[in-house]
Write a structure and sequence with these properties.
Elements (H helix, E strand, L loop, with lengths): L5 H4 L8 H4 L18 E5 L3 H5 L2 H10 L5 E5 L5 H14 L5 E5 H10 L5 H6 L1 H9 L3 H5 L2 E2 L2 E2 L5 E4 L1 E5 H7 L10 H13 L6 E3 L2 E2 L6 H5 L6 E5 L4 H7 L10 E6 L4 H15 L7 E2 L5 H6 L3 E6 L3 H7 L7 E4 L10 E9 L6 H12 L1 H7 L6 E2 L4 H6 L9 H8 L4 E2 L6 H17 L2 H20 L2
Parallel strand pairs: 1-2, 1-3, 8-13, 9-12, 15-17
Antiparallel strand pairs: 3-15, 4-5, 6-15, 6-16, 7-13, 7-14, 10-11
Helix pairs in contact: 10-11, 14-22, 21-22
Length: 459
């Protein structure tokens, strides 16, 4: 999905909170080329070229719904925070789109302020929707629940798994990690790779961001920097579509900072030790797209990434045998983190029924095959991933979706309605925490706790 993959989602650096971004030049409906008031407007975070790439999907939709004219509206944000800020500006100006593509990072922001719940539509068309829910893991659905209601249908998603260089493993005489490998095993792998390193090789490389940064290490240590809890409700959906599931909720709830939890300290200390031994890089700012060429050239042994990387590595000239993937190593648990994306219907839309038809079509088998032809993200539909990865993916590509099945507690990245400010607080404090002394780390976590308290207090 150019705009549906984590490739775009991973660019979220959190540098600007929504309140700051809104002070920039106001965006209005006049900024949308060719906007016609009767069109169903679909906003994506992307360029005109990205919008044009969706023409096949629009054409297929119009064959089924010739009475619903559709226009893809490209709104280019520097990151997801910037994109969401521009949507908020359109809302304030009374020129909001009807439908918006929203990643996990913005799900609760939109559910809290901007999006219309899908409950009535899902129940109205439950016979038609059953096939979709049967093909989608319930964890992806729960990620789009908020206070008991469903606000999006997942199109694509990615968990943070471990990619490793086949050449680096062979040079070090290492076999593929076991599915249940541990932090200690990971540490041993890095030390062994380092002993056989050549040139500028670094056994482990990671970035400083919400998805794939410090969070996977927190999750696999049975904790997070925000205390996880869940909203009640949602049984209307679980009883109807997932009757054998237990323990599902009305959505994830992140309202309390948790940066000084001993298990958080333990995870930060582990990463600090990796860096101190020069086995891992200092976490760099940004989305990590530059890692494709570095990984492809063999100077990185391991790095966190999702299914979205398969297409990038293929385009960079890597063969499927040049690398492989493994589960994230186990700390106290082996809970993984993921992010997902899907369309949200805006509360302000006067075409909600038409918008629902667009959502339904996009998650249909035909719609997904048209929208996602390349292995540039995991499909929310279990069945579609075979088509995406069988020919291009690494030997163990099946673990992408199996992550949800094998580790039932796998959950979305922490993203409350104040996500932009929360992520800024996290990124601001991680680097010092993992590159300084133990005392510096503890001071940074104290600062993170304070910054999170301020972030969560913002409306």
């Amino acid at each position: 999905m150019a705009e549906l993959t984590r490739r775009g989602l991973l660019g979220l650096g959190g540098a600007a909170v929504l309140g700051t971004a809104l002070s920039a030049k106001r965006l209005t409906g006049l900024d949308i080329p060719g906007r016609r008031s009767h069109d169903l407007s679909i906003a994506i975070n992307g360029t005109a070229q990205d919008a044009a790439a969706n023409q096949g999907l629009i054409d297929a939709f119009r064959k089924v719904h010739p009475d619903i004219p559709v226009r893809i509206v490209p709104i280019q944000g520097a990151d997801w925070s910037d994109f969401f800020a521009k949507i908020l500006t359109l809302v304030a100006a009374g020129t909001a789109p009807d439908v918006v593509m929203v990643a996990t990072e913005g799900t609760q922001l939109f559910a809290d302020r901007l999006a219309h719940p899908l409950d009535e539509f899902v129940l109205r068309d439950k016979a038609e929707m059953k096939e979709f829910f049967d093909d989608v893991h319930p964890s992806l659905i729960e990620a789009f629940m908020y206070q008991g209601s469903l606000y999006q249908l997942p199109l694509s998603w990615n968990a943070a798994n471990i990619y490793y260089s086949a050449a680096a493993m062979e040079r070090a005489g290492l076999d593929r990690p076991a599915d249940d490998w541990t932090w200690d095993d990971f540490h041993t792998y890095l030390r062994t790779m380092s002993k056989h390193a050549k040139g500028t090789f670094r056994p482990f490389f990671w970035t400083n961001r919400l998805w794939g940064g410090i969070v996977p290490w927190l999750y696999t240590n049975d904790t997070s920097f925000l205390k996880p809890s869940r909203y009640s409700g949602g049984q209307w959906l679980w009883k109807e579509f997932y009757p054998t599931q237990t323990g599902r909720s009305g959505g994830y709830k992140w309202t309390e900072p948790n940066a000084e939890d001993p298990k958080v300290v333990e995870a930060f200390e582990f990463m600090r030790s990796i860096i101190a031994e020069t086995l891992g890089s200092s976490p760099v700012q940004g989305g990590g797209n530059e890692l494709v060429s570095r990984f492809g050239s063999g100077v990185i042994g391991m790095t966190p990434a999702g299914g979205y990387w398969v297409y990038g590595l293929s385009q960079a000239g890597m063969k499927k045998t040049d690398y492989d993937v493994a589960y994230f190593p186990k700390g106290r648990t082996q809970q993984h983190q993921f992010g997902t994306a899907g369309y949200a219907i805006m509360r302000s839309s006067k075409q909600k029924d038409a918008a629902w038809e667009w959502l339904k079509f996009c998650v249909s088998k035909d719609g997904m095959k048209i929208a996602q032809k390349n292995p540039d993200s995991n499909s929310a539909r279990r069945s579609h991933n075979v088509e995406l990865y069988e020919n291009t993916g690494p030997a163990h590509w099946k673990l992408f979706y199996d992550t949800l099945d094998k580790f039932p507690t796998t959950a979305p990245v922490p993203a409350p309605p104040q996500e932009a400010a929360v992520e800024t607080a996290l990124i601001k404090n991680v680097l010092a925490a993992v590159t300084g002394s133990h005392a510096t780390m503890m001071n940074s976590l104290g600062n993170l706790q304070r910054d999170l308290e301020l972030a969560l207090a913002k409306d």
